Amino acid sequence: MDTVNEELFGVDPKIEKSIQFAKNISISKAPILIVGEIGVGKKSLAKYIHANSNRVDGEFKLVDCALDPMEVEKVILGHRYEDTGRYQKGILELANGGTVVLSNIDALEEVFQKKLHKIFNELEDYDIDIRIVATTTKNISKLVGSGRFYRGLYTYISSNSIYLSPLRERTLDIEMMAKHYISEYNIANGKAITINEEALRKITGHYWTHNVQELKTVIEASLNNCETDTLTDDDLTIGEKRAVMMIAEDDSEGIRLMSLKEAEKLLIKKALIHTSENRTQAAKILGVSIRTLRNKINEYRNGGSAYFINLR
Fold this sequence. Notes:
Blueprint: H1 13-25, E1 32-35, H2 42-51, E2 60-64, H3 69-77, E3 78-80, E4 87-89, H4 91-94, E5 99-103, H5 110-120, E6 131-136, H6 140-145, H7 151-157, E7 161-163, H8 171-189, E8 194-195, H9 197-204, H10 211-225, E9 230-231, H11 260-274, H12 279-286, H13 290-302, H14 306-309
Parallel strand pairs: 1-6, 1-7, 2-5, 5-6, 8-9
Antiparallel strand pairs: 3-4
Helix pairs in contact: 8-10, 11-12, 12-13
């Protein structure tokens, strides 16, 4: 597993407080809920918690709960292949003695939420010892209040909650991280590129919608465009109207082949999740009109998809 440097989370007092709490709680077995916007570092913090726990030699398993509901259930609980009859263990078994991360836990189907809560409370009966870390971009307590998230599961995961503040609220961290990624690029490519003040001001003043993940992507792309030893504001690929396919920090697991229709529904679902169900922002990310998005939502709702039925 990749190591995570504590310093790279930032030096902002709010972040330092969150990281210190994560470090303190990592030695226990208690479930943890990490809350923050897309790209802010929730998966990295989950890795940090695992690395600082007595489970560091155990497995670190992650599943994105925003994927197809049937696939998510199979990944978590395991399943038997119909053609061969071979049983594939789920991550709850595979990570015995380690850590399981449920990314975008708010996207779980309601029926499965209740089922999972029951399973979590019976893990000891099956001699399974795991630490559960859940991540979300939403205020799940509000979802509980509106009946869209099972209270029992929320109570289980939220006893220790950690909030990671957006990067745009941490100017010093933006500058520190930008310089770190430049240094990282220089080492990897045998270069000695520096950044001038105008470019640095443009970076620190930008509204980083996708936080650390976006900053890293922009820095790398800008350095690739740089033809001198100094990165200028003209080299920066920010503030432009361009289509960028951002791979979320938790999207590296569970990829599978699916039909175009399935992929379309999944993409729309993930866009809504990542914008906290702001349809205008989701439509912009998807490159469609708000009317088209509304029609698709109604189509999936009429088709009986639980996520879209419960969509406000």
